[in-house]
TrEMBL record:
GO terms for biological process: gamma-aminobutyric acid catabolic process. GO terms for cellular component: cytosol. One of its GO terms (molecular function) is succinate-semialdehyde dehydrogenase (NAD+) activity. Pfam families: Aldedh (PF00171). This is Succinate semialdehyde dehydrogenase. InterPro entries: Ald_DH/histidinol_DH (IPR016161), Ald_DH_C (IPR016163), Ald_DH_CS_CYS (IPR016160), Ald_DH_CS_GLU (IPR029510), Ald_DH_N (IPR016162), Aldehyde_DH_dom (IPR015590), Aldehyde_DH_Superfamily (IPR050740), Succ_semiAld_DH (IPR010102). CDD domains: ALDH_F5_SSADH_GabD. Keywords: Oxidation, Oxidoreductase. Residues 20-478 form the Aldehyde dehydrogenase domain. The active site is at E256. Belongs to the aldehyde dehydrogenase family.
C-alpha cells in the first residue's frame, strides 16, 4: 500500500452520480504492484448494471453542465488542476505503486496530466462559432459549436494520470459529461483523480468512474444509445473491436492506438543528441509507450559507432523498484509483457540479431527486464513489424535517405516517428515524407498539452491536446435564419 499524506486519495469504490458505491454483490478485483507482485488492494468491480447507472447519471447531469457558462466550467477545471499539483506527491506514489514507473517519471506524468486541465479550462472560453456571408439578403447564416453529449472514455494502464485528463479535460470543458472505464491494472490513479475532481466542485454525474470488466463495462459504453462519443487509448486490436461495436449507434470516435515508431539516424546527426534522444524515447516508461521508438534505423557511416555508444549507455541504466531514488527503469506491467519482450528477442536472435546490451530477465526477478539493444536487425523480425512495448532497442542499417523513408513508412501504423540530422534541407524533406502524426526532429520527446497528439493509418482517429483536442467533443450546428427584411 503506498504511504500517503492524504489517505482519502486511495479510493476503491465506483464513482456514480457524485457518490462512491460498491459493486453489485460486493464484487471486487485485485490490483497488484508490478515491482513486488504484491497485492495493493481490492477495487470494486463494476459490470453492465453499474455502467448503465453511470451513463444515466451522466445523461441526467448533461443539461445543467452544458448550460453553465464556459467560464464557470473553466473555474472548476482550474481548481482540479491546482488540486492535482497540490497532491502531486501522493498521486505519484499511487501511480508508481500500481504502474511501476520510477517516481521521477511519475511526477513528470502528473504535471503533464494536470496541464490538460489548465489548457482546456482556457480553451473552453474560445469555442467560437461563425457567421457566413449570406447569399440571400433576407437570410443570415451562422454556425454554432455545441457539446456532443455524454462521452465514454476507455483508458490504458501505461499513463493513467495523463491519458484520463487528456480526455476528460476537453470533454468537460466543451460541456459534455463523461463515464470513464480505466484499465484494470491501474484503477487507483483514476479514482484518485476523480476524488480530486469531486473536491474541485464537479457537480454530481458530470464525471463517473467504473473500473471493472472490460467485456461488460466497455461494451455497455460503446453500445449505449445515450453515449454520443467514445474516446479510447489502447491496442489497435481493441480499438478495431470498439469501432465495430460503436457502429450500431453511429458514435463519434477518437482512437489513440498502437504505434511502431521508427527512428532514422543519418550520418550527419549529432551522435550525443541521437543517443540521448533514442534513450528518452525508447526507454520512457520501460518502453511501454505508444510513441516509443520501436525500430532504430542507422546510416552505414555511423552504424558501428552508434551501436557501441548506445549499448554502453543502455547497459548503465539503473533498474529497480520505482520508489528507489536512483531507479531509471522500473518493472514491466505484468508477466505477459515480459513474455512478449522475451519472444521478440528470441525471434530476432534466431534470425541473426546480436544482443549488445541486456537481453534477459533481470536478476531482480518478477516483471523486471534488462534494458536491451539488438544490432543486426532485419525486416523479417517480429521486432520490426510488431510493437514490442518493452525495453528493447533493435538497430537496423540503411544506405541512403530514400531507403530510410521507405523502411520507416513500411508499417500499417502511423503514430510517431523521429529522425536525427543536422541538414536543414533533409529536415524538410524527411519531415514531409514520413507518414506519421507526430514527428520528433533531433529529439525523442515531443509531448506537450498544447501540441496535437494522434496517429495516421491504423494508429487511430482524431487528435488529443492542443486547440484541436476540444473539437473532438463538439458538434457543428448550422442555423439558417430567414425573414430578416420583414
Ligand atoms: N496506445 C497505447 O497507448 C497503448 C497501447 N497498448 C498496446 O496494447 C497491448 C496490450 O495492452 P492492453 O493493456 O491489453 O491494451 P488494451 O487495448 O487491451 O486495453 C486498453 C483499455 O481497453 C479496455 N478493453 C480491453 N478490451 C476491451 C473490450 N473488449 N471492450 C472495451 N474495453 C476493452 C481495457 O480494459 P481492461 O484493462 O479491463 O482489460 C483497458 O481499459 C500493449 O502491449 C501495447 O502494444 C497498450 C496500452 C496503451
Ligand atoms: O498513449 C501513450 O502511450 C501515452 C502517450 C504519452 C504522451 O503523450 O507522450
Amino acid at each position: 500500500m503506498p504511504k500517503l499524506q492524504d489517505k482519502g486519495l486511495l479510493k476503491t469504490d465506483l464513482l456514480i452520480d457524485g457518490g462512491w458505491h460498491s459493486a453489485r454483490g460486493a464484487a471486487t478485483f485485485p490490483v497488484h504492484n508490478p515491482a513486488t507482485v504484491d497485492l495493493i488492494t481490492q477495487v470494486a468491480q463494476g459490470g453492465r448494471t453499474e455502467a448503465d447507472a453511470a451513463i444515466a447519471a451522466a445523461d441526467a447531469a448533461l443539461p445543467s453542465w452544458s448550460a453553465r457558462t464556459a467560464k464557470d466550467r473553466a473555474a472548476i477545471l482550474r481548481r482540479w488542476h491546482d488540486l492535482i499539483l497540490e497532491n502531486a506527491e501522493d498521486l505519484a506514489r499511487i501511480l508508481t505503486a500500481e504502474q511501476g514507473k520510477p517516481l521521477a517519471e511519475a511526477r513528470g506524468e502528473i504535471a503533464y496530466g494536470a496541464a490538460f486541465y489548465e489548457w482546456f479550462a482556457e480553451e473552453a472560453k474560445r469555442v467560437y462559432g461563425e457567421t457566413i456571408p449570406t447569399p440571400d439578403p433576407d437570410r443570415r447564416l451562422m454556425v454554432q459549436k455545441q457539446p456532443i453529449g455524454v462521452c465514454a472514455a476507455i483508458t490504458p494502464w501505461n499513463f493513467p494520470m495523463a491519458m484520463i485528463p487528456r480526455k476528460a479535460a476537453p470533454a468537460l470543458a466543451a460541456g459534455c459529461t463523461m463515464v470513464l472505464k480505466p484499465a484494470s491494472q491501474t484503477p487507483l490513479s483514476a479514482l484518485a483523480l476523480a476524488e480530486l475532481g469531486q473536491r474541485a466542485g464537479l457537480p454530481a454525474g458530470v464525471f463517473n468512474v467504473i473500473p471493472g470488466k472490460a467485456s461488460e463495462v466497455g461494451d455497455a459504453l460503446v453500445t449505449s444509445p445515450l453515449v454520443r462519443k467514445v474516446t479510447f487509448t489502447g491496442s489497435t486490436e481493441v480499438g478495431r473491436h470498439l469501432m465495430a461495436r460503436a457502429a450500431g449507434t453511429i458514435k463519434k470516435l477518437s482512437l489513440e492506438l498502437g504505434g511502431n515508431a521508427p527512428v532514422l539516424i543519418f550520418d550527419d546527426a549529432d551522435m550525443d543528441r541521437a543517443v540521448e534522444g533514442v534513450i528518452a524515447s525508447k526507454f520512457r516508461n520501460m518502453g511501454q509507450t505508444c510513441v516509443c521508438a520501436n525500430r532504430i534505423y542507422v546510416q552505414d557511416g555511423i552504424y558501428d559507432r552508434f551501436v557501441q555508444t548506445l549499448s554502453t549507455a543502455v547497459s548503465a541504466l539503473k533498474v529497480g523498484d520505482g520508489t528507489a531514488t536512483d531507479t531509471e527503469q522500473g518493472p514491466l506491467i505484468d508477466a505477459a509483457a515480459v513474455q512478449k519482450v522475451e519472444d521478440h528477442i528470441e525471434d530476432a536472435v534466431s534470425l541473426g540479431g546480436q544482443v549488445t546490451a541486456g537481453g534477459k530477465r533481470h536478476p531482480l526477478g518478477g516483471h523486471f527486464f534488462e534494458p536491451t539493444v539488438i544490432a543486426g536487425g532485419t525486416q523479417d523480425m517480429k521486432i520490426a513489424r510488431e510493437e514490442t512495448f518493452g525495453p528493447v532497442a533493435p538497430i537496423f542499417r540503411f544506405k541512403d535517405e530514400r531507403e530510410a523513408i521507405k523502411l520507416a513508412n513500411s508499417t500499417e501504423y502511423g503514430l510517431a516517428a523521429y529522425f536525427f540530422t543536422q541538414n536543414n534541407g533533409r529536415i524538410w524533406r524527411v519531415g514531409e515524407a514520413l507518414e506519421f502524426g507526430v514527428i520528433g526532429v533531433n529529439t525523442g520527446n515531443t509531448s506537450y498539452e498544447g501540441a496535437p497528439f494522434g496517429g495516421l493509418k491504423e494508429s487511430g482517429l482524431g487528435r488529443e491536446g492542443s486547440h484541436h483536442g476540444i473539437d473532438e467533443f463538439l458538434e457543428t450546428k448550422y442555423l439558417c435564419i430567414a425573414g430578416i427584411t420583414g
